[in-house]
Amino acid sequence: MRIPSLLVVFALLGSSAWAQDDRSRVYVQLNTGLLFSEEASDVPGGSIGFDPGYEVGVAVGYDMGDEDSTISFAPELELYYQYFTVDEDDLPAIPSAVNDDAKAFAFMLNGNLDWHITDQFTMYGALGVGWASVIEYDAWDSGNLSIDDSSGVAGQAKFGWGYNLGGSYDVRLGLRYFKTEPLDIDDDISGTTSEIDVGQFALEAGFRWSL
């Protein structure tokens, strides 16, 4: 009876240790921030600017570093959404424009590199690639103007600082640059095609919870 009891104890301890390690490595991160878009040039209407918008992201990642690692790597899956609008002063330059909405929704695979400067402070950088299932610029998808495709490849880069609040909780503050592949804008009357090719910068805050 004594040997089976010890085996049960060791099994419970082993499973408990595995669960604790799993919670320390897998994390969920929420991001939100203020978004600024580059100006669109050589599009119907000439050079068109955009008003600030917002962005949100939800990510699940796996930290491959250990407690003693100064530098750690984490692959991450992220759902990302951004929304902004055409500058109201520039909108009249697009005669057919009715709506000024611009948005994107993307599935991203990111690679994060964390440099743990101290137990509390971290500097991070990340690169990501994915697929934007929604890319919309409503101002150029109206009247005689139409956008051929509303989806495409997306890429991004992130850089910033993190602070550990204690235990499993971290806050992060940084910059994100996000861009989708260029989209063709067809003019059905003139038969010409132009291209919108812009990226977006965001100042964002994040909250990370290690499970």
Brief descriptors of the model:
3-stranded antiparallel beta sheet, 1 helix, 13 strands, mainly beta, 63% strand, elongated, 211 residues, single chain, disordered N terminus, 8-stranded antiparallel beta barrel, Porin, 11% helix
Model description:
The chain has one domain: Porin. The protein starts with a helix and ends with a strand. It is mainly β and 211 residues long. 11% of the residues lie in helices and 63% in strands. β11 and β12 (193-196) form a beta hairpin. The chain is elongated and about 65 Å long. The strands form 3 sheets. The protein has an 8-stranded antiparallel barrel. It contains 1 helix and 13 strands, in the order αβββββββββββββ. The longest helix is centred in the N-terminal third of the chain and has 24 residues, at 2-25.
Shape verdict? elongated
Rounded to an integer in angstroms, the radius of gyration calculated over CA atoms is 23 Å
What are the secondary-structure elements, in order, as H or E?
HEEEEEEEEEEEEE
Strand content: over 45%
User: Got a strand count?
Assistant: 13
User: How many strands, what sense, and barrel or not for the largest sheet?
Assistant: 8 strands, antiparallel, barrel
Write out the strand line-up for the largest beta sheet, numbering strands in chain order: 1-4-5-6-7-9-10-13
Alpha-carbon distance between the termini? 36 Å
Query: Helical segment tally?
Result: 1
**CATH top level class name:** Mainly Beta
CATH-defined topology: Porin
**How many domains in all?**
1
Q: Which parts are unreliable, with pLDDT below 50 for 5 consecutive residues or more?
A: 1-23
User: What structural class is derived from the secondary structure elements?
Assistant: mainly beta
